[in-house]
């Protein structure tokens, strides 16, 4: 090994230049510096650093719920260009500050890889049978035996490598190289030979802590002229990063199985997102190389992070990873497996030993790579087509519901064919303010997620979801939308969602009870009282509750105090023979009790009568218990009735 290192260093010093990444120009450094920078990597690549934890993927049911949520968010456009995130199970994009992506190139293949190393041209890619790819999704079906991974960090200009660093890797969705043969890459117009210039685009997640982010890197290969403004020069080519890069928390290799990288293109601009199993991080880019009119092949894998070979993701012995590369191209046939790759970064795994069993979703290729290896690229790959199943969902609900009761939705999912639908999932984000109570089949989570399993062609399934509508609910209308997804492609997505609206009414039964004393009589010049108890028997909260208490007598009296409510007029009131207290009780929640204590006295023997009535702007189904009357008999000192 030492002899190999020395020979390689001598060869590098003589033959290999290194390029600094300065916008618009190239600076060659002595090859000896490059050789010196390789020595730590060559030595340290023989070992791995132990890391805590093992790869843990979620249960199939939970993974299905989260993937359905991720797919739904992918169909929901961000409000504008920039960086956004959404955290499961919420369905709103939140704008976040963009960050700075790594300054170094991920770099195109340079033809140096050993057949025993994946990357730098030795990879498998999914080729669209026809048309162009508009979206590709890279994920991992399984990750087993992975307990550690190390990589190399680099300073700007791909200098000062530090190898053997735990959790240094990248995920990459790489497009094919596409030649500007007919002017289909307008940015190549300034190349030395425009017809020889090639466009290339990478959707990237970088896990180097100083720059951890998801972003897009654009390339003009074989430019061989000063690069356009804002582009960096690299070995006769030009590259630049997307203006927007979404910040992502550093991911341990133990979470590899939960990571999903998505690249999407359109004529207006491209976008990238990274789902870490809980939060979806998204950044929008530009259409700098006209990828929408050129993307035909997609490569996805886990690699070293930036600076091409020798940048490698080194896994522990016993590691097995099964990536899945999905493509959307307008058809359902399985992609063609192409034994090629485009990026220069690598990992230390090899293909096989066996090809995975075919499974949806597709169109996709699924392939196995492991430390054991033992198979050639496409021999370890399973192309998967995508069957079609037209799922139609309908949701119905009662026309009205009373706040403080429950609302039951009936959902029907019908498979209109032509194939069976597998992994059918209904997602129902209940209206804000309501809460899940129960369902007639197994449903859980927020949003409420129901796994229907397989729904055969021509069959349907109906079930109910019941939600609690709180007593405080005052929004006049509840609108609820449910959606359905499956592994199969749906030729008619317009019927995959259904909404139902319900008018919300209120009903609050207010009961008033009055107790006056002392009994059987009170002495003159001594205090007496009436307690007025208002109870909201429900089911809704009572809004704008007002208590009116009319006190009358044939003798003059004085109201000396009122407590328990804000009443007018202020005390003391009198001497007078009549007065009415108006007490504002505000909102009385369902089940609440409010007691108002009124104290009065008189100097003259006689009877004081107190009649109270309660009202509310909330409809009351039983007005017969809204009022009550009480009285207190006053006698002079020493007299008895």
Based on the model shown, name its key terms:
single chain; 641 residues; mainly beta; eleven-stranded antiparallel beta sheet
Notes on the protein architecture:
- The radius of gyration is 37 Å and the shape is elongated.
- The termini are far apart.
- The protein contains 3 helices and 47 strands.
- Residues 1-55 have low confidence and may be disordered.
- Strands 3, 4, 7, 17, 18, 19, 22, 25, 26, 27 and 28 form an 11-stranded antiparallel β-sheet that branches. Strands 6, 10, 11, 12, 13, 14, 15, 16, 20 and 23 form a 10-stranded antiparallel β-sheet that branches.
- The protein has 641 residues and is mostly beta strands.
- 7% of the residues lie in helices and 46% in strands.
């Amino acid at each position: 090994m030492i002899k190999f290192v020395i020979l390689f260093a001598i060869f590098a010093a003589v033959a290999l230049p290194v390029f600094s990444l300065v916008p618009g120009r190239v600076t060659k450094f002595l090859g000896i510096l490059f050789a010196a920078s390789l020595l730590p990597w060559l030595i340290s690549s023989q070992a791995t650093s132990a890391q805590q934890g093992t790869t843990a993927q979620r249960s199939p049911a939970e993974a299905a719920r989260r993937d359905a949520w991720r797919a739904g968010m992918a169909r929901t456009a961000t409000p504008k260009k920039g960086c956004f995130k959404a955290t499961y199970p919420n369905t709103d994009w939140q704008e976040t500050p963009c960050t700075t992506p790594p300054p170094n190139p991920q770099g195109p293949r340079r033809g140096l890889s050993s057949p025993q190393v994946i990357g730098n041209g030795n990879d498998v890619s999914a080729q669209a049978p026809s048309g162009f790819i508009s979206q590709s999704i890279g994920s991992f079906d399984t990750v087993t035996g992975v307990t550690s991974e190390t990589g190399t960090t680099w300073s700007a200009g791909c200098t000062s490598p530090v190898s053997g660093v735990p959790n240094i890797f990248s995920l990459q969705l790489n497009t094919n190289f596409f030649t500007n043969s007919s002017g289909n890459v307008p940015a190549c117009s300034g190349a030395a030979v425009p017809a020889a210039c090639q466009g290339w685009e990478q959707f990237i997640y970088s896990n180097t802590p100083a720059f951890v982010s998801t972003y897009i890197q654009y390339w003009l290969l074989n430019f061989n002229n000063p690069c356009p403004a804002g582009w960096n020069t690299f070995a006769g080519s030009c590259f630049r990063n997307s203006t927007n890069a979404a910040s992502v928390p550093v991911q341990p290799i133990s979470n590899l199985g939960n990571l999903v990288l998505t690249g999407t293109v359109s004529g207006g601009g491209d976008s990238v997102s990274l789902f870490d199993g809980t939060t979806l991080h998204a950044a929008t880019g530009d259409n700098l190389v006209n990828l929408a009119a050129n993307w035909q092949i997609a490569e996805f894998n886990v690699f070293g992070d930036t600076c091409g070979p020798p940048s490698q993701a080194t896994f522990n012995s016993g590691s097995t990873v099964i990536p899945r590369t999905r493509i959307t191209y307008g058809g359902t046939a399985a992609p063609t497996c192409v034994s090629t790759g485009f990026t220069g970064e690598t990992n230390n795994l090899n293909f096989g030993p066996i090809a995975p069993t075919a499974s949806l979703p597709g169109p996709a290729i699924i392939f196995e790579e492991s430390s054991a290896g033992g198979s050639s690229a496409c021999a370890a790959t399973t192309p998967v087509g995508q069957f079609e199943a037209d799922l139609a969902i309908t949701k119905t609900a009662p026309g009205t519901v009373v706040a403080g009761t429950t609302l039951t939705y009936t959902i029907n999912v019908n498979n209109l064919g032509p194939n069976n639908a597998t992994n059918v999932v209904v997602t129902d984000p209940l209206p804000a303010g309501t809460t899940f109570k129960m369902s007639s089949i197994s449903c859980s989570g927020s949003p409420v997620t129901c796994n229907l399993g397989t729904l055969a062609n021509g069959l349907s399934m109906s079930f109910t979801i019941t939600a609690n509508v709180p007593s405080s609910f005052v929004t006049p209308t509840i609108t609820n939308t449910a959606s359905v997804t499956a592994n199969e492609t749906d030729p008619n997505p317009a019927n995959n969602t259904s909404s139902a609206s319900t008018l919300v009414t209120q009903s609050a039964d207010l009961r008033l009870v009055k107790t006056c004393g002392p009994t059987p009589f009170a002495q003159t010049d001594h205090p007496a009282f009436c307690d007025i108890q208002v109870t909201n028997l429900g089911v809704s909260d009572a809004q704008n509750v007002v208590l009116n208490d009319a006190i009358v007598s044939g003798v003059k009296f004085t109201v000396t105090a009122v407590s328990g409510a804000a009443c007018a007029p202020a005390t003391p009131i009198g001497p007078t023979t009549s007065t009415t207290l108006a007490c504002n009780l505000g909102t009385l929640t369902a089940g609440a009790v409010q007691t108002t204590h009124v104290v009065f006295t008189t100097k003259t023997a006689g009877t004081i009568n107190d009649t109270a009535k309660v009202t509310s702007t909330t409809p009351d189904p039983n007005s017969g218990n809204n009022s009550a009357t009480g009285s207190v008999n006053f006698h002079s000192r020493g007299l008895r009735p």
